[in-house]
Amino acid sequence: MTLTRTPAELPITEDPLRLLLDNARSKLTPSQKKLADLLRHDATILAFEPALHVGKRVGVSEATVHRFALQLGFASFSHLQKFAQNVFSKGRTVSRLRRVADNQVQGSNTLEHTIEVDVLNLQDTLASVSEESIDQGAAMIAKARRIYVAGWRAGLAVTASLNYSLNLMLGNSTLLPMHGGLYESMLTMNASDVFIAMGFPRYCETTLEAMEQAVANGAKTIAITDVATSPFLPLSDVVYLVPSYSAGFLDSYVAPLSLTSAIITKVSLLREDDVMSNLKKLEKLIRYVGDETE
């Protein structure tokens, strides 16, 4: 009998996906147990990959993946995936930390595994982000009157670097503050400006609200986010889908940093004369007063 449970009907416990898999294990076929073992180890696979790709990871068919979802009591694989996304967004750091601990018990090489995951992220980025989209985003930035960058907490590793580079090259970029003065900083934003948002789970509400305000002001918008279900997509003129999976319990921003580096390079070529002039001025200033800010 197929049940029709939806994600909203299922309780969120400390680790509901693992509990679900463990409780159903006695009813699973050998092929389905392979899937359960994989997903118990890394829920992000189930949360964000299509059924075909999930099956390929353990050598089973797409049909087996769909039957697996039914066996767990879901109406379809998409219902199971939405449930996993819900679990992932609410307890991702806890589940990742548990996974890291499991890997250490199993004797995995931490550095090797970390780099392997980052390499996969970079490969996925190369496959999903086109050169045309890089050109489009860079052209918007190069033509902008002002550039506003939003993205905080751990994402500052990307947004602070992006803002620093753009401001160094063009002199018109602002990293928006998260708290006091955020909306005051956006008062004069208009259709000649570009707003760049970085949004990864758990999708910061403040960043979303700032982006909504940018849209209301008529600014062009660019989003750097993770999946096609991201709430930033509907607000974006240009969007880059970049994975942030990691071997640890926090996101890895290696791929987003590589993406922004490519955008910065393209902008520098589009505004080569201005960038060269600004860099020469900086070099003269450093030689004159010395660099005391390093």
Keywords summarizing the entry:
about 290 residues; alpha/beta; Rossmann fold; five-stranded parallel beta sheet; 12 helices; disordered N terminus
Task: Walk me through the structure.
There is one protein chain. This protein has 294 residues and is an alpha/beta fold. Helix 1 packs antiparallel against helix 2. The chain contains 12 helices and 5 strands. It is 57% helix and 8% strand. Strand 1, helix 9 (156-170) and strand 2 (173-175) form a beta-alpha-beta unit. It starts with 15 loop residues before the first helix and ends in a 5-residue tail after the last helix. The model is unreliable at 1-14 (pLDDT under 50). It has 2 domains: 7-108, Winged helix-like DNA-binding domain superfamily/Winged helix DNA-binding domain (Arc Repressor Mutant, subunit A); 125-289, Glucose-6-phosphate isomerase like protein, domain 1 (Rossmann fold). It has a 5-stranded parallel sheet, sandwiched between helices.
